[in-house]
Amino acid sequence: MENKSLSLEIYINYPGHCQKAFEFYEQHLGGKINDMLSHQQVPANFPKEWKNPILHATMEIGGTILRGADVPYAEPMRSAYLTLKFASSAQAEEVYALLSKDGEVFMKMEKTFFANRFAMLRDKFGTSWMLLNDVKTE
Description:
- The protein is α/β, with parallel strands linked by helices.
- The protein is 17% helix and 38% strand.
- A four-stranded mixed beta sheet has the order 1-4-3-2, covered by helices on one side. Strands 5-8-7-6 form a four-stranded mixed beta sheet, covered by helices on one side.
- It is globular.
């Protein structure tokens, strides 16, 4: 099925820190927050420490739309990764240092048979990333 009007977007649920995650990605990954709507009145099912949970947020990173919201009992991403592809090894290393800080590294940044630099990690917000500077780029 070919459908030129079809697009694929990513939606991530966060356990109370959607706004912080999106602001971090905007500041450090060159993303642009398009909108961020909070719940006007916090429903009783949200944890009391959530002062202003996000109902819906969208941002663009590298031409891809990322959507998100705060959802009680959301868990870190498993078995899916957002992949960032870099034009240089230096840029991949820089973002690796940034996203791995206070996160969990599954595969440290290194050269592989398919990439000059490749890493897999989960950042401090629970978002899983693959970072790639492939061999054809440099």
